[in-house]
Amino acid sequence: MPNLSWMEMLVVGIVALIVIGPKDLPGMFRQVGQFVGKAKGMAREFSSAMNAAADESGINEINKTIKAAANPKKFGVDKIREASQGAVKSTLKAGGETEALKTKLSAERTATAEKLNKAMAKAAEDRIAAEKADATAKAAPETAPKAAPKKATPKKAAAKKAAPKKAATKAPVKAPVKAKSPAKDAK
After folding, report:
1. Is the pTM of the predicted complex or chain greater than 0.70?
2. Where are the domains of the chain?
């Protein structure tokens, strides 16, 4: 269907009104509507006939196969499902072998877990021992007896407080002497 805006449709309506006339315009619109309805019906019928023919000939199945092959994600997932279903079927047939494999794996896993736990516990003990050794090394100088500070006698302390501090004396800064130029002396 052509893409007409409202303004274009208004222009077409005005031209049709002028050319056809107001008496014959409703009859013409009725005939155009019937024609458009028949065209849409024929298009629907053609489309359904083509779909039916495609279903009968198997083109839809071919089309689905081509789309599946073109989509790598879906293709990969389908193949993984097929492979996993085959693996599940083979393990179900084996039966007792899977139970033996599970017990073997669980025994290996528990042994590995115990080894890891022992190694982690030993590492934690070593770290704690090292921290305690560092703490005792740092605490040792602090706990050693310190020499008692000498106490000042009251007379010396009073003398130190009473003695005023001398302010530093600065020598007066002399302005630089300007040299007389020989030209001024000549005048």
Report:
1. no
2. 1-70
